[in-house]
Amino acid sequence: MQTEQTATPGDTAPDHGARRAVTVFPVLVLLAGGLGLLMPDTLRGGKEAVPYLLGVVMFCMGLTMTGQDFRGVVRRPWAVGIGLVAHYVIMPGLGWLIANALGLSPQLAAGVILVGCAPSGTASNVVAYLARGDVALAVSIGTVSTLLAPLLTPALTLLLAGEFLPVHAESMVTDILKTVLVPVAAGFVLRTAANRLVVRLTPVLPWVSVAAIGVIVAIVVAGSAKAITSAAGVVFLAVVLHNGFGLLLGYLAGRAGRLGERGSRALTFEVGMQNSGLAAALATAHFSPLAALPAAIFSVWHNVTGALTAAWFSRRPADD
Fold it and tell me: pTM for the whole thing?
């Protein structure tokens, strides 16, 4: 979740509400998943609400955006470019490799690849802050990766997942425009027009996002509840490998691009953390609830590993 920015020496810091939300987010999503398993018949019917719930998350993200986010892209286009290339090469490629290496079923393989083709995770900039990374760079990469998602996510999914299942890239573009770009733009416009009002609401926004993603996970888990017993183990392994190698290769990409320690920490999370809410919504709409299972598990796992990695980084010098 993108968060309200306040100036700090040489950095951009999320507010305390966002940090608390990220801390408790995995627990809330686990509870939501458990609810989906316990009440599958009740929650399965909420499938149609998933795109709207994602729209709420993206609208909240737009509300936290400022012109400063875009000026950061102009000031450091090379660094942002490295982050974008790393994100949209490493995670889709890893998804394809892992799906093939584990011999996943077509539905699960498409779901894992779709997670890899999604833009940066909505909590990645908060975790970058906790890791004493370059938050301004993280926000810029996350913002641009989200804006590019209508083009890159369907194209990469078609390229890499097309061998497993039919991929209707054109309708996927339309869905991403409606559930991502339009809500983000609307939130940004409202933030610009009514800045004082939005700033007052900022502490609530991360919790709205957490609640919406929790409901999405509950619906996704309910839709694939019958298959979870047999598929959960291999899907969890796929998610662990995908996220773990993503974090590691993101950091190494930053070092290879000479972005420094703080910049490399930012890339760690902008590469390894995905917008799994978007992946779950697209998988549910275009494939099946089973294909959305990797995204649901990723929603929990990447926040756990993100927090642990940030804690490890925070205890080490942030300067080269």
Answer: 0.84
